[in-house]
Design goal:
single chain; mainly alpha; 7 helices; binds zinc ion
Length: 194
């Protein structure tokens, strides 16, 4: 009975977000359509530069790093494994939270920018994962998170493949964010429903 209830709710649960993504309505974004296109084009160019050399440290990686360290503090009390994972986890949770917020606001273009940031975080994370065995990156928080995590999971020898998968997920999200950003830029402010 429990699962029947769950399945009955699923289509609505699934269709709701899907419809939100597809309806080009824009409620709150103050940017003009031209400015939105401009911003998305800039993010496309910046994204292409980053994905060409994700291991070069850029200004935005400083922001990711601050969020990463906060994640360790937040997840630290939930045991050693989650404490180590928390840094990386929070790098995805923070942009996804804002992504969800803008989506709920009906601001699809802003949400596309946040999706771009999720993609950029994937590239940042992929570099760290691929470094698990070689440990060449300078660390600010002592032990290497991904050496520990992959060792615990018995996956250390697959660090390159796992890192590459996260990098490719980043490319997919990046392409989606740019396509969606350009598409949603044309949205006109919605007429307020009474
Ligand atoms: Zn860390």
């Amino acid at each position: 009975m429990f699962w029947e209830d769950k399945i009955a709710v699923m289509p609505r649960w699934f269709l709701g977000p899907a419809l939100l993504l597809l309806r080009p309505v824009n409620v709150t974004n103050p940017l003009s359509p031209g400015a939105k296109v401009g911003l998305t084009v800039l993010l496309a160019v910046y994204g292409f530069i980053i994905l060409g050399s994700p291991d070069s440290f850029r200004i935005i990686d400083n922001v990711d790093l601050a969020i990463h360290e906060t994640g360790h503090l937040i997840f630290g009390p939930f045991g050693e494994f989650l404490g180590f994972l928390g840094g990386t986890l929070f790098q995805v949770i923070v942009p996804l939270t804002f992504f969800g917020y803008f989506l709920r606001q009906g601001d699809r273009h802003a949400a596309s920018v946040l999706l771009w940031w999720v993609a950029q975080n994937c590239w940042n994370i992929s570099v760290y994962v691929k470094d698990a065995r070689s440990q060449e990156l300078p660390l600010v928080d002592g032990e290497h998170d991904w050496t520990y995590l992959l060792y615990e999971l018995d996956l250390l020898e697959h660090d390159q493949a796992i890192g590459q998968a996260i990098y490719v997920i980043g490319i997919t999200l990046f392409a989606a964010s740019i396509g969606w950003g350009l598409w949603s830029a044309r949205a006109k402010p919605a007429v307020k429903e009474k």
